[in-house]
Amino acid sequence: MNLDLTALADEHLAAARSAPHGRSAHLVLHDGVLRQTVIALTAGTALDEHNAPPAASLQVLTGRVRLTSPDRTHELSRGELREIPKVRHGLTAVEDSVVLLTAVND
């Protein structure tokens, strides 16, 4: 499978900008326990705190986001990749942003 992440990011950011809730997501890969999802969020939009999968990472394709957990906050910008903490966490777009979430679920 070949996928143009830049085009997909642009498409979903446009969709998020016109969506009443300010977000748009697309599952791009689902292979057994592995999932990759493109998530677009407009500035100020948040994914409320939720449980962490067994393993996950977040890569910022465009914009800037804040990854929060009970004891830490990480601000990530375009091109940065970070492991998602294995605790409840949330995500807030500091500016219009698109991220690639890679997760392994049981």
Q: Widest sheet: strand order?
A: 1-2-9-4-7
Give the strand tally. Answer: 9
The radius of gyration over CA amounts to 13 Å
Number of helices: 1
Based on CA inertia axes, which overall geometry fits? Answer: globular
Oligomeric nature of the chains: single chain
| β-sheet strand percentage | over 45%
Structural class: mainly beta
- Could you describe the largest sheet, including whether it forms a barrel? 5 strands, antiparallel
Task: Report the average pLDDT across residues.
Answer: 95
Which stretches are low in confidence, meaning pLDDT under 50 for 5 or more residues running?
Answer: none
Distance between the termini: 24 Å
Written as H for each helix and E for each strand, in order along the chain, the element string is HEEEEEEEEE
Helix content: 10-25%
Task: Quickly describe the structure.
This protein has 106 residues and is mostly beta strands. It has one helix at residues 5-18, and strands at 23-31, 34-41, 46-50, 55-62, 64-69, 72-77, 81-83, 89-93, 97-104.
Describe this protein's structure.
The structure is a single chain. This protein has 106 residues and is mostly beta strands. It is built from one helix and nine strands; from the N terminus they run αβββββββββ. The strands form two sheets. It has a five-stranded antiparallel sheet, with helices on one face. A four-stranded antiparallel sheet has the order 3-8-5-6, with no helix packed on it. A hairpin with a 2-residue loop joins strand 1 (23-31) and strand 2. The longest helix is centred in the first third of the chain and has 14 residues, at 5-18. The two termini are 24 Å apart.
